[in-house]
Amino acid sequence: MSIAIVSLILLVVVAVIAIPIFVMVFGQAAKRNPNRPDGDGDETERRDPNDQSGAGRD
After folding, report:
1. Domain that holds residue 24
2. How far, in Å, CA of 46 to CA of 42, rounded?
3. Is residue 25 part of a domain?
4. Is 26 part of any domain?
5. Dist. CA 7–CA 11, nearest whole Å
6. Cα–Cα distances in Å, from 36 out to 32, 40, 41, 46?
7. Nearest of 22, 40, 43, 24 to residue 32 by alpha carbon
């Protein structure tokens, strides 16, 4: 077999393994996204630690 055919077969094998992993990882990330309407993200409001306004100011 030529090296091109071996490389193509190897590329197909890697793609068959990698594509489902990427789909799973990005699917989980999208599920946790709080900006998505049905996202299961953290419901608490995130604040900027450098914000100097609000309670606790002297």
Report:
1. 1-34
2. 9
3. yes
4. yes
5. 6
6. 8, 8, 9, 16
7. 40
**DSSP structure string for 1-58:** --HHHHHHHHHHHHHHHHHHHHHHHHHHHHHH-TTSTT-----SPP--TT---STT--
Decide if 16 is inside a domain: yes
Question: Amino acid letter at 13?
Answer: V
Total domains, the chain: 1
Note whether residue 29 is domain-resident: yes
Tens of pLDDT, residues 2-52: 999 999 999 999 999 999 999 998 888 777 777 766 655 555 555 566 666
pTM above 0.90, yes or no: no
Residue that is written with structure tokens 């993200």 in the block: 41
